[in-house]
Protein backbone atom coordinates (compact mmCIF):
# COMPACT_ATOMS: atom_id res chain seq x y z
CA UNK A 1 0.00 0.00 0.00
CA UNK A 2 1.49 3.33 -0.96
CA UNK A 3 1.38 6.42 1.21
CA UNK A 4 -1.22 8.16 -0.96
CA UNK A 5 -3.77 5.35 -0.61
CA UNK A 6 -3.01 5.11 3.11
CA UNK A 7 -3.59 8.86 3.50
CA UNK A 8 -6.79 8.65 1.49
CA UNK A 9 -8.00 5.71 3.58
CA UNK A 10 -7.20 7.60 6.83
CA UNK A 11 -9.09 10.66 5.56
CA UNK A 12 -12.16 8.52 4.76
CA UNK A 13 -12.04 6.95 8.23
CA UNK A 14 -11.70 10.37 9.88
CA UNK A 15 -14.59 11.74 7.80
CA UNK A 16 -16.77 8.75 8.77
CA UNK A 17 -15.90 9.24 12.45
CA UNK A 18 -16.68 12.96 12.23
CA UNK A 19 -20.02 12.23 10.52
CA UNK A 20 -20.97 9.72 13.23
CA UNK A 21 -19.92 12.10 16.01
CA UNK A 22 -21.83 15.02 14.43
CA UNK A 23 -24.94 12.92 13.83
CA UNK A 24 -24.87 11.71 17.45
CA UNK A 25 -24.55 15.31 18.71
CA UNK A 26 -27.59 16.29 16.66
CA UNK A 27 -29.60 13.33 17.96
CA UNK A 28 -28.59 14.16 21.53
CA UNK A 29 -29.61 17.81 21.11
CA UNK A 30 -32.93 16.82 19.50
CA UNK A 31 -33.62 14.45 22.41
CA UNK A 32 -32.89 17.24 24.90
CA UNK A 33 -35.56 19.31 23.13
CA UNK A 34 -38.03 16.41 23.41
CA UNK A 35 -37.13 16.00 27.09
CA UNK A 36 -37.68 19.72 27.65
CA UNK A 37 -41.11 19.57 26.04
CA UNK A 38 -41.97 16.55 28.17
CA UNK A 39 -41.09 18.60 31.27
CA UNK A 40 -43.51 21.31 30.17
CA UNK A 41 -46.20 18.67 29.60
CA UNK A 42 -45.70 17.30 33.12
CA UNK A 43 -46.09 20.76 34.68
CA UNK A 44 -49.15 21.56 32.55
CA UNK A 45 -50.70 18.27 33.69
CA UNK A 46 -49.99 19.18 37.32
CA UNK A 47 -51.61 22.57 36.77
CA UNK A 48 -54.61 21.00 35.06
CA UNK A 49 -55.00 18.60 37.99
CA UNK A 50 -55.15 21.56 40.40
CA UNK A 51 -57.74 23.50 38.43
CA UNK A 52 -60.81 21.43 39.37
CA UNK A 53 -59.82 21.57 43.03
CA UNK A 54 -59.53 25.37 42.86
CA UNK A 55 -62.80 25.65 40.93
CA UNK A 56 -64.56 23.50 43.53
CA UNK A 57 -63.09 25.48 46.43
CA UNK A 58 -64.03 28.84 44.95
CA UNK A 59 -67.32 27.53 43.57
CA UNK A 60 -68.60 26.72 47.02
CA UNK A 61 -68.31 30.40 47.90
CA UNK A 62 -68.95 32.10 44.58
CA UNK A 63 -71.95 30.51 42.92
CA UNK A 64 -72.70 33.72 41.02
CA UNK A 65 -69.33 33.41 39.22
CA UNK A 66 -70.66 30.39 37.35
CA UNK A 67 -69.54 31.61 33.90
CA UNK A 68 -65.94 32.02 35.01
CA UNK A 69 -65.91 28.67 36.78
CA UNK A 70 -67.36 26.91 33.74
CA UNK A 71 -64.87 28.58 31.37
CA UNK A 72 -61.88 27.58 33.51
CA UNK A 73 -63.22 24.03 33.84
CA UNK A 74 -63.80 23.82 30.06
CA UNK A 75 -60.26 25.02 29.29
CA UNK A 76 -58.84 22.57 31.77
CA UNK A 77 -60.68 19.66 30.18
CA UNK A 78 -58.99 20.04 26.78
CA UNK A 79 -56.84 16.96 26.15
CA UNK A 80 -54.17 18.72 24.06
CA UNK A 81 -54.28 22.44 24.78
CA UNK A 82 -52.38 24.81 22.55
CA UNK A 83 -50.41 27.84 23.70
CA UNK A 84 -53.35 30.21 23.25
CA UNK A 85 -55.59 27.97 25.35
CA UNK A 86 -52.88 27.76 28.02
CA UNK A 87 -52.68 31.55 28.01
CA UNK A 88 -56.47 31.74 28.38
CA UNK A 89 -56.34 29.22 31.22
CA UNK A 90 -53.69 31.36 32.95
CA UNK A 91 -55.98 34.41 32.65
CA UNK A 92 -58.89 32.34 33.98
CA UNK A 93 -56.84 31.20 36.97
CA UNK A 94 -55.90 34.82 37.69
CA UNK A 95 -59.58 35.80 37.60
CA UNK A 96 -60.50 32.82 39.75
CA UNK A 97 -57.98 33.85 42.40
CA UNK A 98 -59.23 37.44 42.17
CA UNK A 99 -62.76 36.20 42.88
CA UNK A 100 -61.42 34.36 45.91
CA UNK A 101 -60.17 37.69 47.28
CA UNK A 102 -63.79 38.74 47.82
CA UNK A 103 -64.44 35.85 50.22
CA UNK A 104 -62.54 36.18 53.52
CA UNK A 105 -63.65 32.73 54.72
CA UNK A 106 -62.30 31.16 51.57
CA UNK A 107 -59.01 33.05 51.83
CA UNK A 108 -58.62 31.75 55.38
CA UNK A 109 -59.41 28.15 54.43
CA UNK A 110 -56.42 25.85 54.96
CA UNK A 111 -57.46 23.81 51.93
CA UNK A 112 -57.62 26.86 49.68
CA UNK A 113 -54.31 28.21 50.99
CA UNK A 114 -52.70 24.84 50.28
CA UNK A 115 -54.11 24.88 46.74
CA UNK A 116 -52.77 28.41 46.21
CA UNK A 117 -49.30 27.35 47.37
CA UNK A 118 -49.41 24.31 45.08
CA UNK A 119 -50.43 26.50 42.15
CA UNK A 120 -47.53 28.87 42.81
CA UNK A 121 -45.14 25.90 42.96
CA UNK A 122 -46.52 24.50 39.70
CA UNK A 123 -46.23 27.87 37.96
CA UNK A 124 -42.62 28.22 39.12
CA UNK A 125 -41.81 24.68 37.94
CA UNK A 126 -43.53 25.43 34.64
CA UNK A 127 -41.41 28.54 34.20
CA UNK A 128 -38.26 26.49 34.84
CA UNK A 129 -39.40 23.82 32.39
CA UNK A 130 -40.02 26.49 29.75
CA UNK A 131 -36.53 27.90 30.29
CA UNK A 132 -34.95 24.45 30.05
CA UNK A 133 -36.88 23.69 26.87
CA UNK A 134 -35.94 27.00 25.24
CA UNK A 135 -32.29 26.45 26.20
CA UNK A 136 -32.37 23.01 24.61
CA UNK A 137 -34.00 24.50 21.49
CA UNK A 138 -31.29 27.18 21.34
CA UNK A 139 -28.48 24.59 21.51
CA UNK A 140 -30.17 22.32 18.96
CA UNK A 141 -30.99 25.11 16.49
CA UNK A 142 -27.46 26.52 16.81
CA UNK A 143 -26.08 23.12 15.86
CA UNK A 144 -28.42 22.99 12.87
CA UNK A 145 -27.27 26.39 11.66
CA UNK A 146 -23.53 26.00 12.34
CA UNK A 147 -21.09 25.02 9.66
CA UNK A 148 -20.16 22.24 9.02
CA UNK A 149 -22.78 20.56 11.22
CA UNK A 150 -25.55 22.00 9.04
CA UNK A 151 -24.35 19.77 6.19
CA UNK A 152 -25.03 16.65 8.24
CA UNK A 153 -28.28 18.06 9.63
CA UNK A 154 -29.64 18.80 6.16
CA UNK A 155 -28.55 15.44 4.80
CA UNK A 156 -30.32 13.52 7.57
CA UNK A 157 -33.45 15.68 7.71
CA UNK A 158 -33.04 17.42 11.07
CA UNK A 159 -35.46 20.34 11.28
CA UNK A 160 -35.38 23.38 13.58
CA UNK A 161 -37.40 23.30 16.79
CA UNK A 162 -39.75 26.10 17.81
CA UNK A 163 -39.22 28.09 20.97
CA UNK A 164 -41.92 28.02 23.62
CA UNK A 165 -43.37 31.51 23.31
CA UNK A 166 -46.54 32.71 24.91
CA UNK A 167 -49.00 34.58 22.69
CA UNK A 168 -49.09 37.56 25.05
CA UNK A 169 -46.21 39.08 26.99
CA UNK A 170 -48.46 39.37 30.05
CA UNK A 171 -48.64 35.57 30.20
CA UNK A 172 -44.94 35.28 30.98
CA UNK A 173 -45.60 35.80 34.67
CA UNK A 174 -47.37 33.26 36.85
CA UNK A 175 -50.83 34.05 38.21
CA UNK A 176 -50.66 36.44 41.12
CA UNK A 177 -51.61 34.88 44.42
CA UNK A 178 -52.32 37.22 47.32
CA UNK A 179 -52.06 35.85 50.83
Automatic annotation (TrEMBL):
It is a single-pass membrane protein. The keyword Transcription does not apply. This is Membrane protein. It is found in: Membrane. InterPro entries: LemA-like_dom_sf (IPR023353), MamQ_LemA (IPR007156). One of its GO terms (cellular component) is membrane. Its main location: membrane. Keywords: Membrane, Transmembrane, Transmembrane helix. The lineage of its organism: Bacteria, Thermotogati, Deinococcota, Deinococci, Thermales. The keyword Membrane applies. It holds the Pfam family LemA. Belongs to the LemA family.
Amino acid sequence: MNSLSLTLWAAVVLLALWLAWTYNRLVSARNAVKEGWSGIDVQLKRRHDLVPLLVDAVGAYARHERGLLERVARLRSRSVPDLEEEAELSRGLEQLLAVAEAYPDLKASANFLSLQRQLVEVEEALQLARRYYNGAVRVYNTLLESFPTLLVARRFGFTPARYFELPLATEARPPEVKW
